[in-house]
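Running this now, will post back.
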Amino acid sequence: TMQIREDPKQLFAAYVDGFPLKWNMHFFPQSMYCDLLFRHANNYDFVGHMDQGFYGQLQNMTSKFGGGKKLSEAFDKVFDLSSQLSVGRGNGNVGTETQALKHVKNYFTAASVRRALEYFAVDYIRLGLEIPGWVDDILEEESEVFAN
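Update: finished.
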């Protein structure tokens, strides 16, 4: 176990393997929320995605549901929305909220990527989500290792 604790990729792989044993709300398949979201998504006034257009979606949500300044103030407090939009990120989320893109290759292995995709396949299929490009990068790196 000492080797696992010292290797972030192995530690994260062990964590991914244990997901189903104790689901965390951040890692639970999103399509299972809201009375099986995939069944009812078309009935919602707004369904957003934390993808490249995230800030633009927040801006649209503020326009649609703003009702004063409370929502836009909350988005500014949490996401720094006004600043992000002023630097042209309305359609260009770069992961500044979590810095996730900087870390995925430090933690994911090809095996843990495949395992996570097994868990969240229902989201990608039922909600029509795109698989992030970094997934292909990690899987491609593994295939290059075995090709040599």
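The mean pLDDT is 76. More later if anyone needs it.
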